[in-house]
Write a structure and sequence with these properties.
single chain; mainly beta; four-stranded antiparallel sheet
Length: 167
């Protein structure tokens, strides 16, 4: 397509978004598939309620935008390196990973807390659709299930022979 190759894809109730090879997040209205907005960044997540998009940048900045208007809701510089993963939950949590840490934010990027338990870079994050639980995978070959209320580990799944690439 005219926007370049397609990387990670996200589909929500009203939007389809993908990251292209030029570090642009292309957002389409769904199901009409008319172009909605273009954001720049390395990783992104659309909130499950379709009201905001969170975009990570190469300099370590994370920005939250209202999806309808593109107006900025919050901005935080948490590192000099980009987040390796950004995800959103229907419980108004945003999670980003940086090295072996997971950082929890609210939609306007106020810090909620840290989840610390991996021994190597966190490569994957996924929220449960109905429960206040999140899974994380890492280069340490472990998957950890987290209780979001207590911010503690519920369960660690070990024994994988390679790093976790998807959940």
């Amino acid at each position: 397509n005219k926007f370049g190759g397609i990387g990670e894809i996200s589909l929500s109730k009203e939007h389809l978004a993908y990251l292209n090879l030029n570090n642009q997040v292309i957002v389409w209205d769904f199901p009409s598939l008319t172009l909605h907005k273009i954001f720049t960044g390395n990783h992104y997540a659309i909130s499950s309620e379709d009201y905001c998009i969170i975009v990570s940048h190469a300099d370590g900045t994370i920005i939250s935008y209202l999806l309808a208007s593109g107006l900025e809701m919050g901005r935080v510089q948490f590192s000099h390196d980009p987040a390796t993963k950004v995800v959103s939950s229907k419980f108004s949590y945003i999670a980003t990973s940086h090295l072996a840490k997971i950082i929890l934010w609210d939609p306007v990027l106020n810090l909620i807390g840290y989840l610390d338990g991996h021994e190597n870079k966190v490569t994957e994050l996924e929220f449960h659709n109905k429960k206040r639980v999140m899974a994380s995978g890492s280069l340490d070959c472990d998957i950890i299930l987290w209780d979001l209320d207590s911010k503690n580990k519920k369960l660690t799944l070990t024994g994988h022979s390679g790093s976790i690439k998807c959940l």
